[in-house]
Design brief:
CATH architecture: 4-Layer Sandwich
Number of strands: 18
Strand order of the largest sheet: 5-2-1-7-8-17-18-6-14
Number of domains: 1
Distance between the termini: 19 Å
Strand content: 25-35%
CATH topology: Anthranilate synthase
EC number: 5.4.4.2
Number of helices: 7
Helix content: 25-40%
Catalytic activity: chorismate = isochorismate
Order of helices and strands: HEEEEEHEHEEEEHEEEHEHEEEEH
Shape: globular
Oligomer: single chain
CATH class: Alpha Beta
Pfam families: Chorismate_bind
Domain Chorismate-utilising enzyme C-terminal: 94-343
CATH superfamily: Anthranilate synthase
Family: Belongs to the isochorismate synthase family.
Length: 351
């Protein structure tokens, strides 16, 4: 992987944009290195490159293939070193988030919505951040996730290991997932609770109903338990055929943000989050990935997008870690906070 990181360090020295990433269950890491510092907005569904979109869907950027060098290398990582750590948090952070969850539960019980996703941002002090080591740790520790490091001088550096696909398009065939509910690997034998089952069914129903106007032959798998690092989720695989190949952009618009990262009904939940969450999510819970990327025979997929979860933004020697959980009328504020603490381990382990 030497070639990939040599180019990465060259880009950083010149303050030029890049993204490096490795797909789930793939043995290859890819890098797209932009040859200028222009900040390109995603303006056309005919654009081609790596897209990086915000949660609010108001700022969507792209590193264009036409202005970049593409490098793909085999992952040769045999093992990595990382330090175990004890989870810690402030009482203020715990109290603030539990109060937020209580507010969301009250709103749901009023009948205005059935789910809202609450999130928070935790600052994690870094001693000697090393982007190469962090990326290699992600590749080694989270083989089933989408791993990435994105940099643009006007956006900053983001990295993450997300378990959730937003949309995959191959010709007119599309696939996505409904992912919700969380428990730790230590609770593997424990049955899923009614709260988690309802939460996941909400996501499945929303995606299915949103896709119907644009697709034929919609099929859903049975829900199953999916492992992401030390966490478990309920997952349903969804596949369909596009009625019109030009509907891809519309499908992205109706899916994002899904109830898994926003809530239901989507517009009401998003407005309530913006009004009450108390900070800007920025690119957390947005989406990212390959957009119109069929550039040669090796790249068989047109578009491959993921939800930007389990992620952080690096600023100086501080990582801003973004973590959240789905809230329903039966949510327990303390348990929801513990869920965010467990989720933060994904990023802390690679930093």
């Amino acid at each position: 992987m030497t070639e990939l990181f040599s180019k990465l360090y060259s880009q950083l020295e010149q303050n030029l944009p890049f993204v490096i990433y490795s797909k789930p269950n793939d043995h290859v890491s890819n890098g797209l290195f932009q040859q200028n510092d222009t900040l390109h907005e995603l303006e056309s569904e005919n654009s081609s490159g790596f897209v990086f979109a915000s949660f609010y869907n108001d700022v969507n950027y792209i590193i264009p293939i036409a202005e970049s060098e593409l490098i793909s290398v085999e992952n040769t990582i045999k093992e990595v070193q990382y330090n175990e750590f004890e989870q810690s948090f402030t009482q203020e952070a715990k109290t603030d988030f539990e109060n937020l969850v209580s507010l969301f539960v009250k709103e749901i019980r009023s009948g205005s919505c059935s789910k809202i996703v609450a999130s928070r941002c935790e600052k994690f002090e870094l001693k000697d951040f090393d982007v190469e080591k962090s990326f290699k740790r992600m590749v080694y520790l989270y083989p089933t996730a989408f791993k990435y490091c994105f940099f643009h001088p006007e956006i900053g550096m983001w990295l993450g290991a997300t378990p959730e696909q937003l949309l995959k398009v191959n010709n007119n065939e599309i696939s996505t997932v409904a992912l919700a509910g969380t428990k730790t690997i230590n609770e593997l034998e424990k049955e899923w609770g009614e709260k988690e089952k309802i939460e996941q069914q909400l996501v499945t129903n929303f995606i299915s109903e949103s896709l119907e106007p644009f697709v034929d032959k919609l099929t859903l798998s049975e829900p199953y338990t999916y492992q992401a690092g030390k966490l478990l989720h309920i997952k349903t695989d969804i596949k369909a055929i596009l009625k019109d190949n030009n509907h891809k952009d519309k499908v992205v618009q109706v899916l994002h943000p899904t109830p898994a990262v926003c809530g239901f009904p989507k517009d009401y939940a998003r407005d309530f989050i913006i009004k009450n969450e108390g900070y800007a999510r920025d690119f957390y819970a947005g989406f990212l990935g390959e957009w119109n990327f069929k550039i040669n025979e090796k790249h068989t997929t047109d578009t491959d997008l993921f939800v930007n979860l389990r992620c952080c933004k690096i600023e100086d020697q501080v990582a801003k870690i973004f973590i959240g959980c789905g809230i329903t009328e039966d949510s327990n504020p303390e348990l929801e906070f513990i869920e965010t603490v467990n989720k933060s381990e994904t990023i802390k382990k690679i930093l």
